[in-house]
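Table S5 (text form). Sequence records supplied for joint modeling of the two-component complex.
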Amino acid sequence: MRKFARRKLITAGIAVTAGASGLAVAARLAQRYGLIPPDAGGFYGPGETLTYAAQRLLTRHSFAREFAPSQISKPPFANQVDPLGEAFKRLQEAGFTGWRLNVDGMVARPASFPLSTLKSFPVRSQITHLACEEGWSYIAQWTGVPLSHILNLVGTLPQARYVIYRSFQPDWWESIDMADALHPQTLVAYGMNGGELPVGFGGPLRLRVPRQLGYKNVKYITRLTVTDTLKPLGLGLGSAAPEAGYAWYAGI
Amino acid sequence: MAYPTIDTLSQMAGSVWAATSRSVVPATVTSRHSAVVRVTHWITTLCFLALLISGVEILISHPRFYWGEAGNVLTPPLFKLPIPASRSTVPTGYGYVLPDQNGWSRYLHFQAAWLAVLTGLFYLGYGLLNGHFRRNLLPGSAQLSWRALSTVIAKNLRFRPASEADAWSYNVLQRLTYLLVIFFLFPLVIWTGLAMSPAIASAFPAAVTVLGGQQSARTVHFFVSIFLLLFLLVHVVMVSLAGFRNRMRAMITGRPAANLEPR
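The corresponding structure-token record, covering 515 residues in total, follows.
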């Protein structure tokens, strides 16, 4: 009996040690390959990390489904937005000619693009699904310049890991990793369903990340910042969403 | 006025899952449920409750269902639930909006889903290697004849007392129900859940189109959850009728009853 107990103890000891060192190695590898989301701390950290790591491994190069023009939702649904204020109204009245997209951070050539310049860049149009975390969705055609084109133009430094994007609405800022930022379907969108992007849908400029849920698709973007760390921003959770209790990664 | 006594109640309780055959009790069994079955059972229970509560919270942010790829408040729904919503954009007919609980609900839903899936995979591996499915869940061909089946069903409908074998082995109706839950409802609820993910849809588009679209996946996910909830309720009622203390003891300690010696 004692012999049996001792053997059990040794087996359990080896199993625990192997498990713990396996976890440590997995954590080291995950860190190295950028598989740990910025909101990985806390009670829900393990689930978030598993989701982000698994989806990054499975979807790094996958393409969001594109639909036929006949599948476009008529009419699409513009979610509610907070009042945009007088400054926005003035820009809108001037046809957004004064709207600029500033690009800074870890880039060789920081820049500030007026809307007209963005529209002169290579155009990509795609019919994709926009799904809200609440459960509803719509399909629309989005037109814009691939974010990767802008990033190549300003020259992101090799150590860049995330792109932070900010809205005209000061409390809405988000960030994505380089896999999403450089993805060909990630657009700085200014057009929808063949026309200008309506204000209700984020016009004049919205970041479209079709492989993530609606709240990562920030409306009224004014600034992009390329960075290697999200720690110094806000509460250090990566974006405004986790500060409001929502996951940073919204691929599910 | 004759109130049922504790004795008659427990007699009724024992009758619910009547046995068809005594020969299904293996001679070598030392406990009713193996440690792996007991531990995975309770982890799954915990996960299921977490998924249920967080799922209801997520659901009330948009208690409308659609068929196809896309759907929103401007789209005619397949059906809508007559409940208030946690978003003011959803027309519900109620004059108030419930508080938004989606943040923690989504975190909890996915964390519980991961734990449930990993536990399920472990259980699946164990069940296949150790013969748990073959021995304890697959009905024998004799049990599947119409005659045998109708006997079990009739016994259950008449609340015949359970035999001692029932404390040691599942009857054919239990076996079929558990197999349906483990090999059909659980995989389907995981699949339809994943099919709602825009990233998963990009990597495995066929997993979505086969279901008819992402809103169809959401609708199927809802119905499978209802079936799983029904299973849970019937399961708990049956356990209570069969003798709550004994059945619980069997699933916690492995021993079916205090007065039954391990075999």
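Note: The domain at 66-243 of chain A is CATH 3.90.420.10 (Sulfite Oxidase; Chain A, domain 2).
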